[in-house]
Structure prediction request, 983 residues.
Amino acid sequence: MQMSREQSRIRNFCIIAHIDHGKSTLADRLLEHTGALSAREMQEQVLDSMDLERERGITIKLRAVRIIHKAADGQEYQLNLIDTPGHVDFSYEVSRSLAACEGALLVVDASQGIEAQTLANVYLALDHNLEIIPVINKIDLPSANPDEACAELEDVIGLDGSTAIRASAKTGEGIDAILNRIVSDVPAPTGDLEAPLRALIFDSHYDAYRGVIAYIRVMEGSLREGQRIRMMAGSKEFEVAELGIFRPAPTAVQELKAGEVGFVASAIKNVKDCRVGDTITDARRSATTPLPGYRKAKPMVYCGLFPVEPGDFDRLREALDKLSLNDASLIWEPETSVALGFGFRCGFLGLLHMEIVQERLEREYGLELVTTAPSVLYRVTKLDGEIEEIQNPSQMPGAGLIEKMEEPFVKANIMMPKDFVGPVMELCQDRRGNFINMEYISTQRVLITYEMPLSEIIFDFFDRLKSSTRGYASLDYEVVGYRQADLVRLDILVANEAMDALSLIVHKDRAFHRGKAIVERLRGLIPRHMFEIPIQAAIGQRIIARESIKALRKNVLAKCYGGDISRKRKLLEKQKEGKRRMKQVGDVEIPQEAFMSVLSIGDEK
Amino acid sequence: MSWGLYVHVPFCLGKCAYCDFVSYPFVQAEAGRYLWALRREMELCPATGELPLTAPDTVFIGGGTPTIMPGKCLADLIRDLAARFRWPESAEVTIEANPGTIDRLKLAGLRTAGVNRLSIGMQAAYPQTLATLGRRHTYADVIESVQAARDTGFTNLNLDLIFGVPGQTLDEWRATIALACSLEPEHIAAYSLEIPEGTRLFQLVERSELEPCPEETELEMYQLLRQNLARHGYRQYEISNFARPGHKCWHNLRYWHNGNYLGLGPAAHSHFNGHRWSNHSEIERYVTALDAGEFPLAEDEQLDRRTQMAETMFMGLRLKWGVNLLAFRERFGVNASELYSGEIDRLLRLGLIEIADDHLRLTEVGLPVANIVFAEFL
Prediction:
């Protein structure tokens, strides 16, 4: 095996942290400190380039930036900072970017201490044998307690707290120490320069001019412009049109060698041909085995998206098409609904992914959408032995055909101050959780682990968790498999007609309670009509809850002051416009928010 | 061509709790500038090019509270208007008045100047409801005003009433109707309270300090109004208007017929044959424009045919006898029943309208929910 002298001066690292613990600010500071950006170019949080990312303070797409650092030994080192998303929905992407590194900065907020995602990310990093450099950030805050945070590092993770670097990304304190530690502690990449090419795709993104841009870490061999390459899982072949690195502006290079990180563009039209986790090899001199760990991300949460204006159907399809170019994990297929007309059933990695897609469709494509309540992917075994996967309540077979039903379960880690253990456990029990473990991570804070249905997590769980802990709890979860459950389909009937878009699959024991809550909510949302409207919740033929909306009694414009008829007309036009924006189902007009209402129903008994 | 003249007087004693109109507390100097500007506008207005050579046959001086102005100012103004527009003696000349702002002297002056109809803002009879509305008078003031009007020879009186006020009960409303009828006005207009955004009442309701009147109660009040006024000999001729025979308000009928009118004064609206315009509503802008010799135009809209027809429909439907389909065809050259066949079918099916004697009108069922019907024609 051959290793170059250059390889010994490369360090590939990432930053892992719980959301809001200052990852992006630290990345900015590292870039600024090494002169990758001049102060004038410096824009806060440059790595989060999408507007949405910046607004939500989360990182959706990872980026890789090369910075040059002159270390204490007088040598210049090439440091590749690989940014990772911080949210559970994107944990597969996190794992791929960790696989591209040899080390990780573990950032912990000095006033918050370790949180659920810190832990999840640390375990992921340890799984990948990364060298972990703990950084206690935000020590400039008055509420900072770095000693306590260090103690948590030792007690919970087993890291030597005394080696943690105390820093403030805001003031710049400790940045130098961090850079020097990366050089001294993170191992240089190894990888045979002469071996057949193996490069890991840890992210990809679609560019309108250059096609798909793959972010890669070359593990073995090298990659040159013009080279013929093959995707080992996707098996398609392409020619390398452009190679480059980010510093952070894209800069073309002739070659990327084992150990290096960069990007490659090969006129690939669709991100689905260039999936995260796949291995790029040389088409003529192929590696025999791909890099480990590739899997296709499977959507876990589904919902229907319908245009408010029926005429926008084509625009919605085009927008989804474009978004999918950039998002291999977004899947969709046409769906029709009696209530909502023509739209799409879409699958997402998780709730956050779903919200991001909805928001991008509305913001970037100017679409107005009606969204149905999200559903998980259920597994139904029928009496004839056939197994069906169901992501839409309307597909659920009749009760007489079902042998058993299973639903995805997650292992949820929740951290909170010890005073909130009671309410959190109550919430988890209430959401059909099975208690697994409880552990004190410090004298003040507790980690509890539950297994519970994913469907309960996507049903307003995070908001409830936050409100029952005054915002102090943090949550992380991963899907652990399918469990059998006693599930039924709850139908909602408005004016005696079943509203397909409002149906949902719920646990039998909770059907009554939820049905009651939904019909009560709808009574407040659907405006009065000329006739009384019954609203019912039903399981099969059995009505389990009922409300009714009284008929409209009075609606007349008052006095016409001094002949201001335009004003009258405008008022009537507004009324008519409001009516037009509702969905007409039979004789009943239903406002759009009604279709999401099933989600935001409080769960109190 | 028949048309009406409207003159807006933007002054009030103070703002009522439900009022979202531009109005100003009465200040002598302001009123002087206003009157000066109004006379400029009278001179200027033929320049609009729409003003017919004929005289108006209805005149309406509204507000605000026109009668807050000194009697002599008002009488002079009306005389100047009459000299300028030369309406015939037979014209209906109405002025709006609030109890407490009129006395025999003022009313006699108005009579002499040619005013022959008086519309009094009674609104309510009971102190707590008057207080909720922010009115600054009592029922006793109303009695006095009516008495003074009769003494000075007014034979055509209207009383304005409001129902559906927060806190108002059905019994209170029944008594209020009786108290209004006991004053024997020739005309009664009764509106259900609207609470526009930006008003004091709106704030109170927002802050849950006041409970808005439930729809059911409002409807009961409305039906009670119709029954009890009918018993006292008042015939309903519009959603909110009731008159003894021969005393309908011709000026307001013009609005409902989507007819022509010229509005003078701040915030006044005008309409001639599909052309609508309005004046600046702030006094300052109104005066400044006229001072500079300009027309105080705020909005100017040439309605397309479709909109003119829609307005003719929804305004006409307010009338008890409805829209005259023959007149509609004569005016627009199309049959409303063909043009709106889909809408009419739907509304007929819901039982909200009926067609009889070449008129399209609201049914008993449609009357309380008239907006639903109106909106169909837009």
Notes: The radius of gyration of chain B is 21 Å.
